[in-house]
């Protein structure tokens, strides 16, 4: 039961990051300027949708309670968010 709560929180964090990136695909934020860089805007659109999808998958796999599926969801979430942040470093 406790692991499912942690997976829910993890899925919410991934969802929030994806939603934030998706909604800021045309708005300047931090040091990023997607309003002037079309490639960055398109990248934020795709990455935001991917992270939202991964958060839904993580939530569904976390509900199952299967340890192997939870491990797969954790690895998928960790690599996707870390990869996204490393990808955004290209635009700094």
Characterize the structure shown:
α1 runs antiparallel to α2, α1 runs parallel beside α3 and α2 runs antiparallel to α3. The termini are far apart. The protein is elongated, with a radius of gyration of 14 Å. The chain contains 3 helices and no strands. The chain has 92 residues and is mainly α. The relative contact order is 0.19. It has one domain. This is DUF3784 domain-containing protein.
Overall tally of domains: 1
Large-scale geometry: elongated
Round the mean pLDDT to the nearest integer and report it. 91
Number of H/I helices: 3
Q: How far apart lie the N and C ends?
A: 41 Å
> Which sheet architecture does the biggest sheet show?
none
Instruction: Name the helix and strand elements from N-terminus to C-terminus, one letter apiece.
Output: HHH
Radius of gyration: 14 Å
Number of E-type strands: 0
Please bin the fraction of helical residues: over 70%
Beta-strand portion reads: under 5%
Structural class: mainly alpha
Low-confidence stretches: none
Transmembrane segments: 6-22, 43-63, 69-89
Keywords: Membrane, Transmembrane, Transmembrane helix
Protein name: DUF3784 domain-containing protein
Organism: Pediococcus pentosaceus
């Amino acid at each position: 039961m406790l692991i499912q709560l942690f997976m829910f929180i993890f899925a919410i964090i991934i969802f929030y990051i994806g939603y934030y990136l998706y909604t800021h695909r045309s708005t300047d934020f931090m040091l990023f300027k997607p309003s002037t860089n079309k490639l960055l805007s398109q990248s934020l659109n795709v990455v935001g949708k991917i992270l939202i999808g991964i958060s839904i998958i993580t939530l569904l796999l976390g509900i199952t309670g299967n340890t192997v599926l939870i491990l797969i969801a954790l690895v998928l979430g960790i690599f996707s968010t870390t990869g996204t942040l490393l990808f955004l470093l290209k635009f700094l």
